[in-house]
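3.2 Worked example (two chains)
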Amino acid sequence: MNFARNDTSVIARWWWTVDHWTLAAIAVLIGIGLLLTLAASPAVAGRIGLDPYYFVRHQLLYLAPATVIILSVSLLSPKETRRVAVVALFGALVLMALVPFVGSEIKGARRWIAFGPLSLQPSEIAKPALAIVTAWLLSAWRMEERFPGHLLALALFGLTIGLLMMQPDLGMTIVMVVFTFAQFFVAGIPLLLVGIVFGLGLIGFTGAYFAFSHVASRVDRFLDPASGDTYQINTGLEAFMNGGLFGRGPGEGTVKDFLPDAHSDFIFAVAGEEMGFVLCAFLVAIFAFIVLRGFGRMMSERNLFVLYAVTGLLTQFGIQALIHMSSTMALIPTKGMTLPLISYGGSSLLGIAFTMGLVLALTRRRAGYGEA
């Protein structure tokens, strides 16, 4: 793009204020994601009797609106991001409340609502929206401590977690707990409250172990592989060993022919076999770059809302990538979670697009443009 510095159009102002490096990193992840979807999904589709390019076509179908979401949301001012987030969170919470009753059950969980041939996982939209609304309430509390913004944020957080556990979705719950805790920590909540929240988190995860058999099974197999079926993890680790340093080449891997969810929850294993350690390290570096670049731009930020919001958004983006890669490599118990902008999944792609659009909007240089 070639815009003059004195061009005051909306697009020109966006171009000169948005972080080009983060924008480029997002584009690189999308490109790698398409490449890995092309490599991994035909084998998965064939195993379940679908057209080989079924998942590829669906991913491309979602990629178009995802790109529009990233670019359009990145045009927003901080005030506009708050308005959009409130509407998005309200809508997502309503849908999450309906999920146990009208949602589609997949692998024992109800997390999706069908809209004709397409389905949506509302919690993927609630995740970034909650980060924005929480940041708004915390910043209002910090500017006027008589306003109980921190208590309202905790109540909203509790409502969201409660709806998540009805599905149940422990992985998403972990992500929301971590990024909300990060926002409260940056906002400077009292240490006593930090300890209480941490203790409640431990009690909650312990309760999940005893309440949900699939959670207990995954933890037990992680601690003692001989206690149950570890086929997915063993196959994923074998993929990394087969890939070596530079991999077997795009489309040349064999693990996707046997590994369930190779196009989504275990796509990092496909990357390890076909692209090798080098590409995997590059992926890790790109994710780390986006997170660190965003925090770097916050070092001189004076707007508390922007600081808290970006903290929540980047933390959830980074922790989701970390959980996916760690579980694929057997560093933590297995957890079905997509790799942001890489794995197949329409709801995940739209939710991450919303997240990245908000990050780009809030990390824009606003000096001289009068944006609140």
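3.2.1 Second chain
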Amino acid sequence: MRSFSVSQDDVDGLFGVVGPLLDERQTRLVGAAVALMLGRGGRVGVVEASGMTFERVAAGVSQIESGEAGPSDRLRAPGAGRPLRVDQDGDLLVNLDDLVEPESRGDPMCALRWTSKSTYKLADALGEMGHEVSPELVRRLLHQMGYRLQAPAKEKEGRQHPDRDGQFRYLCSQVETHLGAGEPVISVDAKKKELVCGTQHNNGVEWQPGSKPVRVDVHSFPDPEIPKAVPYGVYDLAANAGWVAVGDDHDTAAFAANTISRWWDEVGSVAYPDATKLLITADAGGSNSYRNRLWKVELSRLAVRAGLDVTVAHFPPGTSKWNKIEHRLFSQVTANWRGRPLTSHQIIVDLIANTTTKTGLAVRAELDPEYYPLGVKISNAELASLPLKPHEWHGDWNYTLQTTSS
């Protein structure tokens, strides 16, 4: 005999198709039959899919199990049920829709203009209009009307550069070309600075003995006396591997470039012994900004020392979330140390280095105790002397630091 597994999506789909075709009795009995077939937890799944109350489903189950669910022209058992509230109160649905309809948020006269629209507050507002409703009835009516609890979606990015899409296409073509030739391609960025203090709060939760949470400060105000960790990462796209340097000084272009240089010396040169080129994808701002002169000077030194043509392709302004290192490496690091106070630089290094994923991510992390001063100036003459070749497409965002000035 063939066995079938039924998911909640299947139950939702069933009631989405047949629900409008059934009367009250048929809905009750079909829901009860599905609940019995599903077994443990089946009643809850039917309640969520059909919008019926748990009591209605239980009544249907009782009818089937007792043999009372035979053919009948009645929709309800004799004397059972009462008129629906929406049938008794014709304005209820209209007034509820007016309260929660998105346009009402702009109406300063709306009673809920400046409050969260919970079912309790909606029930109170409807009560002031003369409707006798409970928060539970409001919840069911909202579901029937197609409303769902939803968080705001972060999709509006503000003003976009006119060449945004063109740069994405060019960057992708550079990645494909370098990977196709077996050359290394890395995504780089600095992670948010972290306070190194055992009493500072770190978002998230982890398993602890009952009633014994780690005690941390109520507030996390900036404090110049508390040391900070500055993680800068390199993510190898082809190898699905990360390398992170944890500094204790400033996030400067010299720190960023030195991290890439250390990655090449300790990892990249071993993994790609025949490489002649290196492609770096980076954000448009920060320590690896396309406007940062020191960034280009330091990368030029790496290119000459390593014998590599170092190409940099920057993401367009305002699109840093698309940088691979953000969701392939840093998001996994954050998940790995959630809920755990970061008490020392070494703890941070160890937590980063022990970050793994089911897709095979491997991470290496090391301390960088070097001092990186702020305010290093690069003259026009020094910048002009670099073996820097801008690309034909947006040479400010795409450029190659050659091994020689030819």
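3.3 Remarks
The mean pLDDT is 81.
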